[in-house]
Amino acid sequence: MRNVVVTNPPRADLAQTDALGSFGVATVHEAIGRRGLLDRRLRPIQPGSGLAGSAVTAVCWPGDNLMIHVAAEQCRPGDVLVVTTTSECHDGMFGELLATSLQARGVRGDRIVRASNAIDPAALAPSSAARDAVRTALAVPRGAPLVCYLGRKSSAKSLDLLLRALPVVKHQPPPILALAGPSTEWFQRVLREAPCPERIRDLPALSESAKSALLAASDLLVQPSRHEAFGIVFLEAWAVGTPVLGADIPAVREVIGDAGTLFRAEDAGHLARSIDEVLADPEHARRLAERGGQRIRALHTWDHVGPAVMAAYPRMQAGALAPDDFTAAKQAS
Questions:
Q1: Would the pLDDT of 103 be above 90?
Q2: CA distances from 245 to 128, 231, 264, 285 (A)
Q3: pTM value?
Q4: Portions of the chain given CATH number 3.40.50.2000
Q5: Strands (E), 109-252
């Protein structure tokens, strides 16, 4: 699939879309000659809600929301953003950052409620035997640190930057780099040209238990992406006591806060130095991971996020939720 962006797409008159929206889907579908109806499984999450507007569409790879960011740049007041993936996808690709951006652009979603992502930390903790088994299976030399990345191996994730940084890292013994997630043709080309191939472990998409074991066995999680929404993998790393390093971009800054390390996006040298700094001071890395655990408990458990989301449903059904009425849900989460 080629990434193609259509700028300034044609749009219907806002007054006309408002009028059509008042008739409902079935009536409009019949009136325009029974054309354009999507699968009946596509329906509002909250009963009784609806919207109408000009569609701005985005097609994404599973787990890769780059084209959602691109489509958001094309949106205008009164638009409706419609997103699909090239195959089945269970990843969370739309979060608070994108919701806020679309609200600012006037995209229709009059009942958007912002609430954070959440995890169950207790469900992620693997046994010490699982950690040891991972390092053995990956042939990590004694005393060498294990650095990992988890996610789709697409160009938007800047894995070429991480591979360029790897030979510049000065730590001894040199770290082993494990890259876990669905591969792409782009990544396979990059991997064939990568320096230090003997220090790279190319892993497929992992089960939840295997992912937790890899995170727990690692000395550092590195996510070099230059395009991200909410990086839930940072929470998963903190839950098993692993420090995190991410690119200094708005979404990652918001998630990590003061509980991780940031490097200048697209700067391989700074990335290598940042890896060295974390690996050189295990006590500081441990404190950062503990701070991450505190952020989970304060902001990202279902006990915090669930009530904020559930409290919004009665207001949605009553039609009482205004476009900017998300402050309480944000604070509660």
A1: no
A2: 23, 12, 11, 10
A3: 0.66
A4: 121-299
A5: 146-150, 176-180, 200-203, 220-223, 244-247
